[in-house]
Design goal:
By secondary structure, the protein is α+β, with helices and mostly antiparallel strands. It has one domain (2-182): Alpha-Beta Complex (Peptide Deformylase). The protein contains three helices and eight strands. The longest helix has 16 residues, at 31-46. The chain is globular, with a radius of gyration of 16 Å. 30% of the residues are buried. The model has no long low-confidence stretch (mean pLDDT 91). Bound molecules: zinc ion. Zinc ion binds at residues 104, 106, 146, 150.
Length: 190
């Protein structure tokens, strides 16, 4: 868990700046970018995150990692193999939006309810430099929208449905328990 200490925390200017696009012409052979990608994946894993953006480890470049699996922080997370997205951008978003709870490794101890597009199409380069396009829905789409925000200096606390939808981690867990008791299986949709 020592990597956790390397994650930029709320208040650090790097989280509020707009990140720069990376040069993708020689991505597969770019040692610095490959190392950055490896580090993003390693920190995501070590910190039990479902995604991480390069500014969160102090590098203001447009690179994100997504790697979702059920874990202690997100027991209902879907399985999404570890993937790096270089210069990701949304090319399509559904008109339908939904609200759900989010947290962030850069804003520890806080959960908030946020609106996100239900379905998105994200275009990006993979770590070999190949153009990719992927449609994602639900929680996976939420992860990508959250990480893309990081590249523009936006944090989930900027997008709260209302200030009242901001809970401490302990109160959030309590809420989830109550919801699970009321309606088993619906804990992730309070
Ligand atoms: Zn975050």
């Amino acid at each position: 868990m020592q990597n956790f200490l390397k994650i930029a925390q709320l208040g650090q200017p790097v989280l509020r700046q707009c990140s720069s696009a990376v040069a993708v012409e020689n991505l597969a052979g770019d040692r610095a970018l490959q190392a950055l990608g490896d580090q993003l994946l390693a920190v995501t894993r070590a910190a039990d995150g479902v995604g991480l953006a390069a500014p969160q480890i102090g590098v203001p470049l447009r690179v994100i990692a997504i790697a979702s699996r059920p874990n202690a922080r997100y027991p209902h997370a879907p399985l999404l193999p570890p993937t790096l997205l270089f210069n990701p951008r949304l090319v399509k978003t559904s008109r339908d939006r939904e609200q759900d709870w989010e947290g962030c490794l850069s804003v520890p101890g806080i959960r908030g309810r946020v609106w996100r597009h239900q379905t998105i199409t994200v275009a990006y380069r993979d770590r070999h430099g190949c153009p990719q396009q992927r449609e994602l829905t639900g929680f996976a789409a939420r992860i990508v929208q959250h990480e893309l925000d990081h590249l523009d200096g936006i944090l989930f606390v900027d997008r709260l449905v209302s200030e009242r939808d901001c809970f401490t981690e302990a109160e959030y867990q309590q809420l989830q328990k109550q919801a699970a008791a009321r309606e088993p299986g619906a804990a992730s949709r309070v």
